[in-house]
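Hi there, hope your week has been kind to you so far. Do you reckon you could talk me through the fold, stretch by stretch? I've dropped the whole record in just underneath, so have a look:
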Amino acid sequence: EWVSVGIYGMVGAPIKGFEHEAIGLDINTI
């Protein structure tokens, strides 16, 4: 279970970062 959380954290962090950057780009575009 702990390993699953670790893997999810490693994979989830970059995805959240990408979404954050995408939102930032949208705001900059506006």
Remarks:
- Residues 4 and 16 are 18 Å apart (CA to CA).
- The chain has one domain: 1-29.
